[in-house]
Amino acid sequence: MRIHNIYADENGESHFRDIEVEWTLDKLSSTFSEPVSASAIEFRRTEGDYDFEWHPAPRRQYVINLDAGVEVTASDGETRIIAAGEVLLTEDTHGRGHCSKSVDGKVRHCIFVAID
Q1: What's the CATH code of the domain at 42?
Q2: What Rg do the C-alpha atoms of the chain give, in angstroms?
C-alpha cells in the first residue's frame, strides 16, 4: 500500500515521495501495520470548484480521500492526483507549501488525521 508524502526540505521547497506501508502483524485473517498515534481527526467537505493557492500544511496529517480526488502541486513543480481511496501524508509545514484543486468538478469528502 502506497502513501503519497509531500514534505519540505531544509530550504522550504516541497517535494513528493512514496512511502510503502510495512505490514508487521497478522491477526483476524488480516495484516496490520504498526499503530500510528493520532491527536485529532477532522472530516472535511470541499466544493467541486476549489483551487487553493500556495499554502503550507497546518500540521503533519494524513489526508484520506473518500469519494473524489485532489490535484496537488509541490513547489518543485511535480503534480499528482491523489485519487479517491488514496492517502496523502502532508509534512510540508514550512516554506511555500503546495497548491491543491478539485478534480473533475467533484465535491470531495475526506478525513484529516493529525499526527503531531
Answers
A1: 2.60.120.10
A2: 15
